[in-house]
Amino acid sequence: MTGITALKTDRRSFFHRLARSASFPLVLLAACLLWLEDWLWEPLAQLMQRLGRLPLLCRIEALIRAAPPWLALACYGIPMLVLLPFKFAGLWLFARGHFLFGGGVFLLAKIAGTAVAAHLFTLTRASLMKLAWFARLYAGFMKLRDYAYCRVRRNRLWRLTRIGRWRLGRKLRSLA
User: Fold this and answer.
1) Sites in the chain below the pLDDT cut of 70
2) Sequence-ordered alpha helix ranges (H) in the chain
3) What angle do CA 147, 150, 154 make, to 5 degrees?
4) What keywords is this UniProt entry annotated with (predicted)?
5) If we measure between CA atoms, which residue out of 98, 107, 118, 103 comes closest to residue 42?
6) CA angle 68, 43, 137 (to 5 degrees)
7) Are 14 and 81 within 8 A, CB to CB?
């Protein structure tokens, strides 16, 4: 290997390592948001399912389940778009220094959006998966989510935190 080739390889590996380490906080933030959504998904879907037992909502849900793919997409997407301004308002308030109020607005919009999305996705999933582009997008999203989780789990600080939490739990159990 010539000196110039070795220098180019070293420079590429340096920039690659720099990009990977600089991107980790963004991956961590994305993983935290995805984890929050995953954590809330099932309980909120069950809560919405209980609300769906009301007679009027039961009839509406039956119509949504029977909807063709494009109508199912509208039924799934429109409520998410309605909640988007509230999320932006929460972020705007947060950026303006109203940390508690802005964070609260954003968090409430996120929880409401997750509850509605979880329930509507349960109702429309079979129909939505008939749209080839949606099925590919969903598969890609799941791969991206798994990548973010895997990257965070491989991080040394994450592993040390998990080990510390495990040791603390063991010590607390031994005291009880």
Assistant:
1) 1-12, 14-24
2) 3-51, 55-65, 69-95, 99-128, 132-154, 156-175
3) 135
4) Membrane, Transmembrane, Transmembrane helix
5) 118
6) 40
7) no
